[in-house]
Amino acid sequence: MLDGVGHGVVAVDREWRLSFVNAWMERVLGRSRQELLGRELWTEFPTLRTSSFGDVYRRAMRDGVEVVHEDFVPSSNAWFESRASPSATGLILFIRDVTERRRAAQALSESEARFRNMADNAPVMLWVSDETGACLWLNRQWHDYTGQSEQAGLGLGWLDSVHPEDRERTAEAFLGSNVSREPFRVEYRIRSRHGEYRWAIDAASPRLGSSGEFLGYIGTVTDIHERKRSEERLAFMSEASRILAESLDYEATLAHATELAVPTLGEWCMLDILEEGGGIKRVKVSCVDPTLDALVRDTVRFPPAVTGHPRHSPSRALVEGRAILVEDAGDDYKQQAAFGPEHLAHMRAIGFQSVMSVPLVARGRTLGVLTFLAIAPGRRFTQADLETAEDLARRAALAVDNGRLYREAQQAVRVREEFLQVASHELKTPLTPLSLKLQMLARAAETFPRERFPRLPGDVEMMLQQVKRLSSLMDELLDISRINAGRFSLTLEVMDLCSLVRDTMGRFEPEVLRMGGRLVADVPDALVGVWDRQRLEQVMTNLLSNALKYGGGRPVQVRVWEEGGVACMVVRDEGIGISPEALPRIFEKFERAVSERHYGGLGLGLYITRQIVEALGGTIRAESVKDQGSSFTVELPLTPRPAGPGTPATGAR
Ligand code: ADP
Question: Is pTM, for the whole model, over 0.70?
Answer without folding.
Answer: no
